[in-house]
């Protein structure tokens, strides 16, 4: 019975397999695909593809592709491609990171490349370990180990480097460094370089063994220490990627992250100890302290939350979201675990857990191999699921009220969210996710919009990739833009080929093109400038010109590094010391600390293995160790907290002793002081958290109001915004659980409604679907609407009496008014009864059978059958009275009842007797009618006689007025005080009483008569006082 009931919610709970990622052939491993043709023909595992045809024909593993046709042909591993056509021709290269439309588009087999900016490295086919930053940077470069920072396809970029030769060249007024496009800062950093180029090593012994590896960025003591030939790696934090030798295209952030990696490629590890033991695993994405810590060879895993997947060793294609999610699973593959400690003890594969603890009975459990979903609690459906369209003819997938409602000929579109793509008519190959995302798009093609209002006004703009609430909201005709973050590129209208990353970056841009902005509010006021590169929080905030370079962390007009691509000028607004060091940089070989920025790590005493970058980052730290702080005032108040990773201005600002936290985004976890094990990602995420622990918040301002709640998982902008002390909650979607203040709640919604699409209570094991569910029907009209050519509903059970209860409450789920139970009372093989039973006002417990139907089709009604021990002995067996009312007359044979109580047809002799009786009845009827007429005449005579006696009684009855009447009339009378009983009768001329009124008042009395109680005709009314008739009057009702 449970299994079949679960099918009711499969349309919602199985979105992962039905309408999310579409893998059309050879779908193996734990992959996550979203978009038309995404992952088509994929044969490998642990991949995450978003956008039309993203990862099409992929054979590699642990790849992350975002944008139409990104990574379409790759067999390489651990690659991260973001933007339309990024890595389009890539085949066997590993560990590449391409960001921007067309980045690495023609790249075939190179590895460990990092290309950032539209068409960066577009024609680099076989190069390795290159780092290209800016619009068309390295566009025609064919070699390896090169560094390009440019905003065009020039062969003489503003900054050029050769990592293999340790050379950096400024094609302007400043030349710094030794070798070919390499930058090394720190004792022993890059000392073994031979042919590697375009490397940037900061920290003692960073990249010290690197010989020919190119395009690497190592930051922190011993970061990339053993790397020899690996290229295009980005390691940040003490000992990050320390043992990497040949692995390419890895991104490790946090102390000891990826420390054991040797040949693994295309991995992204964020947080202290994340991917700690990874050796050769590829294409993994780990976010949070100790995520994937024990992973050695497992590939294509996505773990988010402190210690999520930390026990995984060889398992692949797993997706874990939440603190310690999948903690104990070592070799399982293709699992999806969501929530705090979800699936922590599950060791198998192909499992789905949605829970907020390490229970073996999660609120929602699934088995992908068996196509099974189970709700471990109650399922309540109020209205249904509207707005799901799966169009196989033109390959469209629309999910959400009004999503794609205007589509005519547009094909290969995927719209998810209320009114997403609502105006689209002919636009094709678009992927819109979020409420009103791409709502105005009509004919734009190949766009990827993710987030509420993302690309809202886009009409004909094409090949755009917008990620974040309001990202590119006003874009109408602009093409080839890549915007990532809250309100990024919000006002862009016609600007093209821009790449903006960070909350509100490029917000005022309207028609500027070919800009690259990285950082919150970067390039905020620039409306029409083009060809700019702004890096850092508020970098270039007030700059309105073109072809400018800003590297800063505030809105200053004098950035730390300023450049002019037109005039080929680079200016350092501060001190630059190459031989003796750079002011504000501390590299301590004893404590293994790396501090960069004014006042950074100023108070440190015994704390070790810390990496602080940014003005006053970690300024109060004394004994805290193994921390990574990046951003102005990040971790500024930390004293003894350990193993924290803070990225962004004011991230973890007030943290003092809290440990094992991972905060990413401006103001993320800003007020946290003693909370441990939290993972916050996004602008102001977890802003007010003080002591809450083991929370995982993802999305702008999610969990902002939380102060001491723990074990919460919030995914979505403003999710759980008002919840201050609740714990064990799981909120998924924009503003999901916005006003919820309790604990152990599940909200899946896309706004701040108190009635989310899916609501649950983990402690009570209750799930409520606020909508309609249709099975076998596209437009359900009821909370549960079933349609099928076969049986549409089935209840199975192990008990003797499986069935269905119908319960009526007086108000919602208050007092039970009535309960009935329909069940199958089986006593053996093909033995039993169908029963309708009465439970009174009880939901469960004993019941009394009111009706039974046995195997022979006999129906039993009455008390004889209420305990199910007696059988019906006829087709209809009634224990009690039988009543027939308003039966029509007709010809036929009468029925008789025998001595056993059975009803039989009468014999012919009985018919003859019946006919004689009928004739006698008719004669008697005529006589009775005549007697009734004579009786009425006697009544009138008696009335006249009694009227003469009125003088003996002072009671009086007066004529009604008005008379005749058509609506109401009044009858007046006088009743003496000594009268004991008075009654007014209204009757027909034939003597039939129509109304009887008891008169309780004394003295003058008035009685109102309404036509609705009588009907048209002539009536008599009589007053009886103490059993004597006072008078009779006539009234006419028209």
Overall mean confidence score, pLDDT: 84
* Form type: elongated
Strand order of the largest sheet: 24-50-49-48-47-46-45-44-43-42-41-40-39-38
Structural class: mainly beta
Largest sheet: 14 strands, mixed
Report the span from N to C terminus. 64 Å
Count of helices?
4
**Overall strand count:** 67
Task: Using the CA coordinates, give the radius of gyration.
Answer: 41 Å
Tell me which CATH architecture of the domain at 954-1037 applies here: Sandwich
Fraction in beta strands: 25-35%
CATH superfamily of the domain at 954-1037: Macroglobulin (MG2) domain
Annotate the secondary structure layout:
Layout: H1 2-6, H2 10-13, H3 15-20, E1 32-34, E2 48-50, E3 64-66, E4 80-82, E5 97-99, E6 114-116, E7 131-133, E8 146-149, E9 159-162, E10 167-170, E11 183-185, E12 200-202, E13 217-219, E14 234-236, E15 251-253, E16 268-270, E17 285-287, E18 302-304, E19 319-321, E20 336-338, E21 351-354, E22 364-367, E23 372-375, E24 378-381, E25 388-391, E26 396-399, E27 414-416, E28 431-433, E29 448-450, E30 465-467, E31 482-484, E32 499-501, E33 516-518, E34 533-535, E35 548-551, E36 561-564, E37 569-572, E38 585-588, E39 593-596, E40 611-613, E41 628-630, E42 645-647, E43 662-664, E44 679-681, E45 696-698, E46 713-715, E47 730-732, E48 745-748, E49 758-761, E50 766-769, E51 773-775, E52 784-786, E53 803-809, E54 816-828, E55 831-840, E56 848-854, E57 859-862, E58 876-879, E59 895-897, E60 903-905, H4 908-947, E61 956-957, E62 968-975, E63 982-988, E64 993-998, E65 1003-1010, E66 1017-1025, E67 1028-1037
Parallel strand pairs: 1-2, 2-3, 3-4, 4-5, 5-6, 6-7, 7-8, 11-12, 12-13, 13-14, 14-15, 15-16, 16-17, 17-18, 18-19, 19-20, 20-21, 24-50, 26-27, 27-28, 28-29, 29-30, 30-31, 31-32, 32-33, 33-34, 34-35, 39-40, 40-41, 41-42, 42-43, 43-44, 44-45, 45-46, 46-47, 47-48, 51-52, 57-58
Antiparallel strand pairs: 8-9, 9-10, 21-22, 22-23, 25-26, 35-36, 36-37, 38-39, 48-49, 49-50, 53-54, 54-55, 55-56, 56-57, 59-60, 61-62, 62-65, 63-64, 63-66, 66-67
């Amino acid at each position: 019975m449970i299994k079949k009931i679960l099918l009711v919610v499969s349309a919602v709970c199985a979105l992962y397999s039905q309408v999310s990622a579409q893998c059309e052939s050879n779908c193996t491993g734990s992959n996550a695909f979203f978009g038309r043709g995404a992952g088509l023909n994929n044969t490998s595992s642990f991949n995450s593809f978003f956008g039309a045809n993203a990862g099409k024909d992929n054979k590699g593993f642990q790849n992350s592709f975002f944008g139409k046709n990104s990574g379409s042909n790759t067999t390489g591993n651990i690659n991260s491609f973001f933007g339309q056509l990024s890595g389009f021709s890539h085949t066997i290269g590993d560990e590449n990171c391409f960001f921007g439309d067309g980045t690495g588009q023609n790249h075939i087999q190179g590895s460990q490349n990092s290309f950032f900016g539209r068409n960066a490295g577009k024609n680099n086919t076989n190069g390795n370990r290159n780092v290209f930053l800016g619009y068309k940077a390295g566009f025609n470069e064919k070699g390896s180990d090169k560094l390009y920072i440019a905003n065009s396809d020039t062969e003489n970029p503003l900054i050029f480097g050769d990592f293999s030769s340790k050379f950096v060249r400024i094609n302007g007024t400043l030349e710094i460094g030794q070798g070919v496009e390499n930058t090394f800062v720190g004792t022993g950093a890059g000392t073994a370089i031979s042919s590697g180029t375009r490397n940037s090593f900061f920290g003692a012994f960073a990249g010290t063994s690197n010989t020919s590896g190119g395009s690497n960025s190592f930051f922190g003591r011993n970061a990339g220490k053993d790397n020899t030939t690996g290229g295009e790696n980005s390691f940040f934090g003490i000992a990050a990627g320390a043992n990497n030798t040949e692995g390419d295209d890895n991104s490790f952030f946090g102390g000891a992250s990826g420390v054991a990696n040797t040949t693994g490629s295309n991995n992204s590890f964020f947080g202290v100890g994340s991917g700690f033991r990874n050796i050769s695993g590829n294409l993994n994405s780990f976010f949070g302290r100790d995520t994937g810590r024990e992973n050695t060879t497992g590939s294509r895993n996505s773990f988010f939350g402190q210690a999520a997947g930390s026990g995984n060793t060889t398992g692949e294609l797993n997706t874990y979201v939440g603190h310690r999610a999948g903690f104990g699973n070592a070799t399982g593959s293709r699992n999806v675990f969501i929530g705090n400690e979800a699936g922590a003890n599950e060791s198998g594969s192909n499992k789905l857990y949605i829970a907020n603890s390490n229970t073996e009975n999660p609120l929602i459990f699934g088995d992908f191999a068996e196509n099974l979903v189970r709700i471990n609690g109650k399922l309540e459906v109020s209205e249904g699921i509207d707005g799901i369209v799966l169009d196989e003819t033109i390959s469209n997938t629309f999910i959400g009220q009004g999503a794609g409602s205007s589509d005519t000929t547009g094909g290969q579109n995927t719209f998810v969210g209320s009114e997403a793509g609502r105006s689209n008519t002919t636009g094709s190959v678009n992927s819109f996710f979020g409420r009103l995302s791409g709502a105005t798009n009509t004919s734009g093609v190949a766009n990827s919009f993710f987030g509420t209002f993302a690309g809202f006004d886009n009409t004909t703009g094409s090949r755009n990739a917008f990620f974040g609430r309001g990202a590119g909201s006003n874009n109408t005709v602009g093409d080839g833009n890549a915007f990532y973050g809250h309100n990024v590129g919000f006002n862009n209208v016609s600007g093209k080929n821009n790449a903006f990353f960070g909350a509100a970056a490029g917000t005022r841009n309207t028609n500027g093109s070919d800009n690259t902005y990285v950082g919150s509010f970067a390039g905020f006021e620039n409306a029409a400038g083009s060809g700019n590169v702004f890096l850092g929080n508020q970098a270039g905030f007030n700059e309105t010109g073109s072809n400018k370079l800003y590297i800063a962390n505030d809105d200053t007009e004098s950035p730390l590094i300023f450049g002019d691509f037109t005039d080929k000028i680079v200016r350092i607004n501060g001190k630059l010391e190459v031989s003796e060091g750079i002011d504000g940089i501390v590299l301590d070989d004893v404590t293994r600390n790396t501090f960069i920025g004014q006042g950074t790590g100023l108070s440190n005493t015994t704390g070790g293995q810390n990496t602080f970058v940014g003005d006053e980052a970690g300024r109060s730290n004394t004994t805290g160790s193994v921390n990574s702080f990046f951003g102005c005032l990040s971790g500024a108040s930390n004293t003894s907290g350990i193993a924290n990773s803070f990225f962004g201005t004011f991230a973890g600002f007030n943290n003092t002793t809290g440990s094992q936290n991972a905060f990413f985004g401006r103001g993320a976890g800003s007020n946290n002081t003693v909370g441990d094990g939290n993972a916050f990602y996004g602008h102001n995420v977890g802003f007010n958290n003080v002591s809450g622990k083991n929370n995982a918040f993802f999305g702008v301002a999610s969990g902002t109001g939380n102060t001491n709640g723990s074990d919460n998982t919030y995914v979505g902008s403003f999710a759980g915004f008002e919840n201050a002390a609740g714990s064990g909650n799981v909120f998924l979607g924009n503003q999901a659980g916005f006003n919820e203040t309790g604990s152990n709640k599940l909200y899946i919604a896309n706004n701040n409604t108190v009635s989310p699409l899916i609501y649950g209570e983990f402690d009570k094991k209750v799930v409520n679907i606020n909508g309609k569910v249709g099975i076998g029907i596209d437009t359900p009209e009821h909370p549960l609407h079933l349609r099928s050519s076969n049986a549409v509903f089935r209840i199975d059970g192990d008990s003797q009496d499986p069935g269905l209860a119908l319960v009526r409450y007086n108000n919602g789920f208050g007092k039970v008014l009535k309960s009935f139970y329909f069940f199958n009372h089986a006593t053996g093989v093909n033995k039993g009864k169908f029963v309708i039973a009465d439970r009174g006002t009880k939901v469960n417990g004993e019941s009394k059978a009111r009706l039974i139907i046995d195997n022979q089709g006999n129906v039993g009604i009455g008390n004889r059958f209420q305990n199910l021990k007696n059988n019906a002995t006829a087709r209809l067996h009634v224990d009690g009275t039988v009543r027939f009312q308003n039966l029509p007359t007709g010809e036929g044979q009468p029925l008789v009842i025998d001595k056993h109580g059975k009803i039989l047809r009468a014999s012919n002799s009985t018919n003859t007797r019946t006919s004689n009786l009928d004739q006698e009845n008719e004669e008697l009827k005529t006589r009775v009618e005549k007697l009734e007429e004579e009786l009425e005449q006697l009544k009138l005579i008696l009335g006249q006689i009694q009227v003469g006696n009125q003088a003996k009684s002072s009671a009086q009855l007066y004529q009604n007025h008005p008379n005749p009447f058509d609506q109401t009339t009044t009858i007046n009378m006088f009743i003496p005080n000594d009268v004991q009983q008075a009654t007014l009768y209204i009757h027909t001329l034939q003597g039939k009483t129509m109304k009887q009124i008891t008169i309780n008042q004394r003295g003058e009395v008035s009685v109102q008569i309404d036509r609705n109680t009588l009907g048209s005709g002539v009536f008599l009314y009589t007053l009886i006082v103490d059993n004597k008739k006072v008078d009779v009057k006539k009234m006419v009702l028209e």
